[in-house]
Amino acid sequence: MKPVISNILFLFLFFAPKGSFSQTSIENSKTMENTNQQLITKFYTCFQNKDYKGMQECYADNATFSDPVFVNLNAAEGKAMWEMLCVRGKDLRLEFKNIQTNGAQASAEWIAYYTFSVTGRKVVNHVKAGFLIENGKIVKHTDVFNFYKWSRQALGIPGTLLGWTGFFKKKVRQGALKSLNDFMNKKGY
To answer: Domains of the chain (ranges plus CATH)?
Structure first.
């Protein structure tokens, strides 16, 4: 039975119009990558404008977000986090560049300039972002940055002395999660 199937497949492929499969695949791939690039551009343009609702629209209902401070957030938590950061970031300024797409995956680099509200210290945070996109929405978003460098800027001497320790990172994460939960409760998420 296998030789019959392989012969049929061979005849089908041999007599199929040349380029019909590969051209369609290439066109679909380019269209998806262009759409995904537009989605990521929209996300960061909204972030620049502190338009958290526009950012939230970019996420699927089952999306996840993670970075060195906010770890393994679900969609509601991730959306609330962006709202909190936009609302509280009075002097937040953002630059983004190098948006790359490859099928359902995308990446970008961004730099945030802001005053850390807890300490009043200035921060310049360089971030690399990775995305998984399905049906025109972000389903997985992972940001990576140097936690020790961030903690030195945001927290000063405590960040310089302890920012490299797992204990300190855990305390910062707990504080950030508490702040997010308080924000969500206040906003009725």
So the answer is: 19-146 (3.10.450.50)
